[in-house]
Design brief:
It contains nine helices and four strands, in the order E-H-E-H-E-E-H-H-H-H-H-H-H. It is an alpha+beta fold and 202 residues long. The structure holds glutathione (GSH).
Amino acid sequence: MKLIGSLTSPYARKARIVLAEKKIEYDFELDSPWTPDSKVANTNPLGKIPVLVLDDDTVLFDSRVIVEYLDNVAPNNKLMPAPNRERTEVKRWEALSDGVCDAAVQIFLERKRPAGQQSAEWIARQEDKIARSLEFMSAQLGDNASCMGTHFSLADITVGCALGYLAFRFPDIAWRESHPNLERLYEKLMLRPTFAETVPQD
Ligand SMILES: N[C@@H](CCC(=O)N[C@@H](CS)C(=O)NCC(=O)O)C(=O)O
């Protein structure tokens, strides 16, 4: 199978970490939808990464569909519990983390527009989403070793990707100081080769 993505996308990082945690072999094709010669839209009509192309040429997107498929296709190192209340909780962590990434990407793109066209109100709205979500994540995590209590799961991967993206693009957001338990979780995740080897880079 082949994963199409960039080295900066937090959603592509999520898929890369899951592939590595599940020890699934794949080819990684670097492509960013923001480059003029990008071919991403030829495989994903939404023109977004990541895209997973299976050996029979089936195309999967978005990252939530991809990671659910990957967790089911390989029985080892399960990252999501069986369908029940716990699985819903993992998926809520994922929705929250992806939502933080969505808001952060919106700010990043808005700040790339000519200064006169940028909306301070729009940026503040996204910043509020991030601040509230970090607060929520921190309260949910509490003193637990992992998002779901004791065992590592997709929830930790998604939170780690969101925090890693903030650290990469928004070093001014002081989440480590305001939420030391999130920093503790992030530092623990960074000890895993799957995280350390996928740190976002331009
Ligand atoms: N919900 C999607 C979000 C994917 C996404 O927004 N990817 C960004 C890169 S970080 C992208 O491809 N943006 C291109 C665009 O919006 O045109 C997922 O989880 O895969």
